[in-house]
Design goal:
- The protein is an alpha+beta fold and 213 residues long.
- The chain folds into three domains: 54 residues, no CATH class; 79 residues, Pseudouridine synthase (2-Layer Sandwich), CATH 3.30.2350; 66 residues, no CATH class.
- The protein has five helices and 13 strands.
- The strands form four sheets. The protein has a four-stranded antiparallel beta sheet with strand order 6-7-9-8. It has a four-stranded antiparallel beta sheet with strand order 10-13-12-11, with no helix packed on it. Strands 3-2-5 form a three-stranded antiparallel beta sheet.
- Strand 6 and strand 7 form a beta hairpin.
- GO terms for molecular function: pseudouridine synthase activity; RNA binding.
- Keywords: Isomerase.
- This is Pseudouridine synthase RsuA/RluA-like domain-containing protein.
Length: 213
C-alpha cells in the first residue's frame, strides 16, 4: 500500500470521535444504521478508511446495518435503495412466501416496478421505478447503455493488474435469485471492466466494476 495513503487511514470510530461524537453516540449510531460508509449503513467501527468516506446521519431511519433495506434517494418517479445480502431483488418462482426488495418498496410508496436486479447474495444499490413510465424509460436507457453502472467490491488479496476485463454469457436465473454463465438461446453477452481502487490493510482490495451488459 502507498505509504502516504496508509498514513491517512483511520478507524471509523476515530473519524467519528474527531467529528465530536461521544462513544455512546457512536455505539447507538452503529446499532441504528445512522453511520454511513460510502453512503451505506455500517456497524464496523474498527474498519480502516479514509475520513471523507464516513458520514453520521442522525436523522436517518432506524435500521440494522447489513440486514435492512435503506432508502438512499427518492423522488416522485424513482427510489434508489440499498439491498442487503440475502434478500431477493424481485419475486422468484417457487419462493412466493419470501420477501423481495421491489415488493418492499411498493409497500412503502404505493407501487414499485423493477428495472434491474442484483443476485440474492449480493448487496448493493438498486434503482426501483415508482411508476410504469419511469420503468420504461430507465429500461430503455439501460438497454442502450446510456446509464453507467459501477459497483464497488471488497475482495481478498491484491490483483496482479491495475485494470482488467471479463466477458461471459449470462443465462436466466433458475428461480433461486441467481444467474450463471452458460450457453443457450436466452444467453446474454456480458462485458465487465474492473479497476483496482485501493489496496487495504489485512490483505484486501477495493475494486470497481463497470458493467457493459
Amino acid at each position: 500500500m502507498d505509504s502516504e495513503l496508509e498514513s491517512k487511514l483511520m478507524t471509523v470510530r476515530a473519524v467519528l470521535r474527531e467529528q465530536g461524537l461521544s462513544n455512546a453516540e457512536i455505539k447507538q449510531g452503529a446499532e441504528r444504521g445512522k453511520i454511513r460508509l460510502w453512503g451505506v449503513p455500517t456497524a464496523d467501527m474498527g474498519r480502516l478508511v479514509l475520513p471523507e468516506h464516513v458520514e453520521y446521519v442522525p436523522g436517518a431511519p432506524r435500521l440494522t446495518p447489513g440486514r435492512d433495506v435503506a432508502i438512499l434517494y427518492r423522488d416522485e418517479d424513482l427510489a434508489v435503495v440499498w439491498k442487503p445480502s440475502g434478500l431477493l431483488s424481485v419475486k422468484a418462482q417457487g419462493r412466493g412466501g419470501e420477501r423481495d426488495l421491489v415488493s418492499y418498496v411498493g409497500k412503502l410508496f404505493g407501487q414499485a416496478f423493477a428495472v434491474h436486479r442484483l443476485d440474492e447474495q449480493t448487496s448493493g444499490v438498486m434503482m426501483v421505478a415508482l411508476n410504469e413510465r419511469t420503468q420504461f424509460e430507465i429500461k430503455r436507457l439501460l438497454e442502450h447503455h446510456d446509464v453507467e453502472r459501477r459497483y464497488l467490491a471488497l475482495v481478498r488479496g491484491f490483483p496482479s493488474e491495475e485494470r482488467w476485463s471479463m466477458e461471459t454469457d449470462l443465462v436466466r436465473d433458475r428461480g433461486d435469485g441467481k444467474r450463471g454463465s452458460g450457453q443457450g438461446d436466452d444467453a446474454k453477452r456480458a462485458f465487465t471492466e474492473f479497476k483496482l481502487v485501493e489496496k487495504l490493510p489485512g490483505g484486501t482490495s477495493l475494486i470497481e466494476a463497470t458493467l457493459e451488459t
